[in-house]
Write a structure and sequence with these properties.
The chain is an alpha+beta fold. The chain folds into two domains: about 45 residues, no CATH class; about 120 residues, 2-Layer Sandwich (Beta-Lactamase), CATH 3.30.450. The chain is built from eight helices and six strands; from the N terminus they run H-H-H-E-E-H-H-E-H-E-H-E-E-H. The strands form two sheets. It has a four-stranded antiparallel β-sheet with strand order 3-6-5-4. A hairpin with a 3-residue loop joins strand 1 and strand 2. Helix 4 runs parallel beside helix 8. The longest helix is centred in the middle third of the chain and has 45 residues. The protein is elongated and about 90 Å long.
């Protein structure tokens, strides 16, 4: 049998020099049912505890199990909370898209965006900068944003320079922003949304709902501008 001791030898006692701590630990790990077969030993074993002195192995295992259960419950509650928040946000965007379909002018469309974004999503401001029409965004400013913020995609999430914030939001807070080019080629204009929270809009955020909004606006704006 070599150095490995039988369950009988370990269960009935052995000389302190017979097995090393490592050998005992290895044996117990390879025989996880040892204390099931020798349950009477659990009542006599004590484990040092820095806060409670000596506690039984059963008590220690029970405490560790309770900690795991509390941790799992905490994580589950977090997931439930996130799911509820996501459902609420989805409902807001669904209502927003339906109301936008009924807009009869650019002014009405912008009022709907402001109402939903600011009052229900608690965002700081929302503006549309058209690239066509009488109120078109100046060409030089348009190129500034397209060359700097839209090199790869038709949207940008993150922070702007002070100069960029002033161009889009004047004196309103914009610690993080979402910028979306409108139109199949980004030719219609730009939707700009700002938040006081510096981490609200970030490059890693999910883009499903706001991309749907981008698509809705890209269909609606040409009709409203008669473009």
């Amino acid at each position: 049998m070599g150095q490995q001791k039988s369950e009988l030898e370990i269960g009935q006692g052995f000389d302190n020099n017979a097995l090393s701590d490592t050998e005992i630990a290895d044996y117990l790990l390879s025989h996880p049912d040892f204390f099931i077969k020798h349950a009477h030993l659990l009542e006599d074993l004590t484990i040092p505890h820095t806060l409670k002195g000596s506690v039984s192995l059963v008590e220690l295992q029970s405490e560790q199990l309770r900690k795991k259960v509390r941790l799992l419950n905490y994580k589950l509650n977090q997931l439930i909370s996130i799911a509820r928040q996501n459902e609420q946000i989805y409902r807001v965007y669904a209502d927003l898209n339906l109301r936008l379909l009924a807009a009869e002018s650019m002014e009405e469309l912008e009022l709907i965006l402001e109402e939903i974004m600011q009052e229900r999503l608690k965002l700081e401001s929302v503006v549309i900068k058209p690239f066509v029409g009488a109120n078109a965004f100046p060409e030089i400013q348009r190129r500034l944003f397209i060359e700097k913020r839209f090199r790869r995609d038709k949207f940008f999430f993150g922070r702007l320079s002070e100069h960029e914030r002033k161009l889009l939001f004047s004196d309103q807070e914009a610690n993080s922003v979402a910028l979306l080019l409108l139109g199949d080629l980004g030719e219609l204009g730009m939707l700009a949304v700002s938040s006081k929270d510096a981490s609200h809009f970030n490059p890693d955020m999910d883009t499903l709902l706001i991309t749907q909004l981008q698509q809705f606006l890209s269909i609606l704006i040409p009709k409203l501008l008669k473009y």
